[in-house]
Amino acid sequence: MIKLNDLKISYRIGNRVIEAVNGVTLTIPDGSIVGIAGESGCGKSTLMKAIYGDIQSPMSLSGGSIEYGMKGADGRAVTTETIRREWFKSISYIPQSSMNSLNPVIRIRDQFTDFPGTDSNKKRVLERARAYIGKLGLPAEAMDSYPHQLSGGMRQRVMIALATFFQPELIIADEPTTALDVVVQKEILLLLMEVQELMGNTILVVSHDMGVHYQVTHKMLIMYAGRVVEYGDTESVFADPQHAYTKMLIDSLPTIGDDSMRGVLASMAGAGGDRAYRVEPELIEVKPGHFMARPSVGVAA
Amino acid sequence: MTVILKTEGLNKVYRQGGLVRSRQIKALNDVNISVESDKPVVIAVVGESGSGKTTLAKTLLRLETPSSGRAIVYDTVVTGKGTALSKQQFLGLVQPIFQNPFEAFSRYRPVDAYLNETARRVGGMDGAQAEAAVAAALQSVGLKYEAVRGKYTNQFSGGELQRISVARALIPQPKLIVADEPVSMIDASRRMIIINLFKQLRDEAGRSFLYITHDLATAYYISDYVAVMNKGVVVEFGDARQVMGDPQHDYTKLLLSSIPTTKSRWRPRKVAA
To answer: Can you give the residue ranges of every domain in chain B?
Structure first.
C-alpha cells in the first residue's frame, strides 16, 4: 500500500517556484492497476517521478511524505530517501518514449545482465531471461539483437520484460503506449495486464487516453493543476463521473458509430473554462471507494 | 462535379541496401483513390506506422516524386506525369500541416515571420497586404495577431502552435490542405479544438483536407471519406460512415477492434505461471 500524505513537489525556475504537485493525499492499495489522467502540465509525470524517488534539482519535495509500505534490506520501512536502493529490485519505471530508452549499441541480452544486483552468474540470468521473454511473446532471437533490429512494438515488449524481470512490487509506466499504433498498443496493454495478473503487483499507468484507462485500470486518478480532482474505482468513475473535469475528459473522446457532437465540450474547455476546474486538496468520499474534491474557494463558478 | 483528389496508379518504391544486396520497398503500391464532389470534403487516411500513409502525403506535397502514376487535385495534375504547375502555383493549391509544430517552425525565428513569408512568396502580396492576410488567417483559427507577433515557439503551447501552422497554411487560400498527423503531438483534451477547426474551415471557408492519422476515432468524427492503408496498399476506401460502420476488409476490422473504447472491455489471455 502506498500512502501519499499532503505531498507537495515544486520546481524552482530562476526565482520562481512552481508547485507542480500541490497537496496530494492518497492511498493506493496493493495489487491494483491505477490509471492517472489529466492534461500536460497537470503534474501527473511529476507525481510519478516523485513516487519513483527520482527527485533531482530543479525538482524538490517541498512538503508532505510518501509511505511505500515496504521494507528495505535493512528491515526498515522504505522512505523517499531510501527508495533509490529499491530501484531494479522492488520498483521499476517504464519511461515515456521508452522504446528509445534501450541502449542502442549493446545487445538486448547484455541489457538484461546489466542490472545492478542481478545474479552474478550471467549464464543463469540469461537462461531465465530467455524463458521469460518467450512467455511475453518475444522470439528467442530478440535476445541476441540490437534494439534497431526490432520493431517499435517489440522494443516496447523488451522494455516491459526488463521492467518486470525481477518481479517488482511496484511498476510505474509513464505513457507506455504513446507513439505506438492501435494494433500494437492493444498487444502491449494486454501484456501489461497479463503480467500484473501473474505477479499481483501494483502498476501506476499514466496516459491521456481515457479509452486506455477504461480497458486497463482498476482505479482511476484524475488530476488537474497539481491536485487530485477525482479518485475511485474505474467502473464507478466512468459510469458516474462526479467532477466536471472528469466528465469533460470522458466526453472528449469521439466514438465510432456515434455521430453526436461529443467533441464540442472539449473545445469549450480549451477556450478558457480552465479556472473552474481548480479544486481544494481534500477529498470527500462520495460513494464507497469513490472520492472527489471540492471546487477551489475563491474561484467564481 | 470537381475532382477533389484522384490518384492514378500511384507507386513509390524505396531502395534499401547496397549494390550487392538491395531490397525494394513498395511504400505506395498502385494507389487509386478518387473523390469527386461539389462540396469541400475531409478525406482521412488511416493505417499503422509503415503503412505508407506519410509517403502518400509526401508524394501529394511533392516532397517525394512518385515512381510512377500521377495525382490530381481540383482538376489539376499536381505530381507525376503531365504536371505543368510551377512551385508557386502548386503551393497556392496544396498546403501542408505537419505533425510536430515545434519542428515545423525554427526556435530561433519569431513564428509570424513564417506567416509573412508565406504571404509574400506564395501569395505574392506586398507588405501591407501580407500583414492583413496574416491577421485574417490568425483570426480564422481563433488567435489575435497581437498575441502572436514577435513571439518564438517556446512561448506557445503545442495546441496554439499547431493552430498557427493551420493559419500559415490558410494564407495562400489553398484548395486542399494535407495534414500529416496534425494532432498526435497535442494533448488529448485539446485535440478536438484542432479537429473542430478543420470541420469549421471545411464548412465555412470551403477548404478540403487530407487528414492523415492513426486515430480512427477522430477520423470517423470529422471525415467524409476514408482510405485504410496497410503495407503501401489501400485496402479499403469509401464513405467514412460506411467503411467504419461496416468494414469489409480484415485489416480494417482488426484496426477497429484495437481501439480502446469505453464501451466494452478487452479480455486478456492468461499467462502460464
So the answer is: 2-105+173-257
